[in-house]
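To: structure subgroup
Subject: Chain for Friday's discussion

All,

I'm putting the inputs and outputs inline so they're searchable in the archive.
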Amino acid sequence: MEDREARFNEIVETCSERLYWHVRRFVLSHEDTDDLLQEIFLKIWNALPSWRGEAQIYTWVYRIATNEALNFLRREKVRSALRFRSIDEEMERRIDNDPYFNGTDAERALSKEVAKLPEKQRQVFIMRYYDELPYEKISEILNTSVGSLKASFHIAQEKIRSALKKFDDTDLTF
């Protein structure tokens, strides 16, 4: 039990901030991110005894966090449909109404465009662009090939670049 607690405390200490921003980029809301982090750390705590060390602990934790964020977004998509709203409108509303957002107009526009990407492209873009993870690490987390990830990232970049043509090149770089 002490080993489990020590390992868990180490995970919380070393990964909390990175996981916060990773999840936040998916769900776009501080409050939802805080709630999800509690669920994520509970899942990590419960699953820790079954972790066999096949993947690095950070990769394993990232996979749990990514899956929880995506499950949350799927639930939100259903809720939006029940309210007769599009999920894109809901995500834009969250970005515009976020009191904790302190970026430029270009960064706000980038967040909106990332939120519009299909799920796989959004995952890869967030992990590669924001989290600066190497393709090999993303491949482990998402359990997909590096070649497929590179293609998804390139397509996502092109979609975002096209949508953000109105902003000066100095505001955002890929």
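Points worth raising on Friday:
Residues 29 and 94 are 7 Å apart (CA to CA).
The two ends are 45 Å apart (CA to CA).

D.
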